[in-house]
Amino acid sequence: SMQCFPGLVLALSSLLGALALLQLSLYLRVPSPYGKHEERLCRPRSRLPARCAWFLQELPSFLVPALLLALRSPPRLEPLGCRLLCCLFCWHYFYRTFIYPFFTRGRPFPLQLLFFGMLFCIYNGFLQGYYLIYCAEYPNDWCTDIRFTSGLLLFLLGMGINIHSDLLLRQLRKPGEVTYKIPQGGLFTYVSGANYFGEIVEWFGFAIATWSLPAFAFAFFTLCCIGPRAYHHHRYYLKTFTDYPKSRKALIPFVF
Fold it and tell me: Which residues form the 3-oxo-5-alpha-steroid 4-dehydrogenase C-terminal domain (predicted)?
């Protein structure tokens, strides 16, 4: 049976933080080349349909923790706080794997980015799952701790914003359309990257609820990965649409 190695958790979490800074340095000035920022010279055969690509990319983040749990003998069922935290992570990726891809209307996705996305999901799925299933130790009353309750509320709020914003984005296009329009409604009233803002809030909530280095490293990575993308989306909208609301911020309402 697999054992907990705290040194491994520290090393993998530190590497995740370093990857976050690398991601920030690569895409702060130039957006990652997919969606509205895709490279025009990208050959059709080097891309996959968006639905298939998102399914394949997100699947490891659901399967790897599930596999780790299945391999643990005896199964990790206690304490309740630990079980709930593991469920939160898997719940997010169940949605991203089995629900979100079948409704998305995005453009075909570059295979190179899909490959790196899958590698990241395997890596992070292992880190979060391994820590929660084999290493984490919580008191029996963790469910009533202010860190768990406040983190859980933030997680649910962020996930709600993320799902609602994705729904609003889908409604902008009719089936078969690939043109971009100005998002309206919900948190899009205040920020250009409402869906990204929701996901960042979600993972910082998860980090607070778990109060663990792996989860904080992942939240930091999320901020460094999709924060710049929200900024580039904002610039794209301002450049493309002359009637784009000037009061909207890129990512954080009333601030940035």
Answer: 108-256
DSSP string, 57-91: HHHHHHHHHHHHHHHSSS----SHHHHHHHHHHHH
What the block records as the tokens of 178 is 């690939």
Interior/surface letters 149-171, b for 16+ CB within 10 angstroms, e for the rest: eebbebbeebbebbbbbbebbee
Range of the domain at 66: 33-140
Residue with token string 């078969």 = 176
Residue 7 located in a structural domain: no
Is the model more confident about 253 or about 205? 205
Q: What are phi and psi of 47, to 5 degrees?
A: -130, 160
Which pLDDT score is estimated for 213? 98
Please tell me the number of Cα atoms within 13 Å of 76 on its side-chain side: 30
Rg of the chain taking only CA atoms, in angstroms: 19
Q: How far apart are CA 185 and CA 174, in angstroms?
A: 17
16, part of any domain? no
Domain boundary, last residue among 105, 140, 175? 140
Does this model's pTM top 0.85? My answer is: yes
- Please give the average per-residue pLDDT across 170-191, as a whole number: 83
CB atoms within 10 A of CB 76: 16
User: Pick the residue with more confidence: 241 or 37?
Assistant: 241
Which helix or strand (DSSP H or E) is residue 48 part of? Answer: strand 47-48
Tell me which of 119, 140, 161 is where a domain ends: 140
Cβ contact 118:57 at 8 Å = yes
In the predicted model, what is the mean pLDDT of the chain?
88
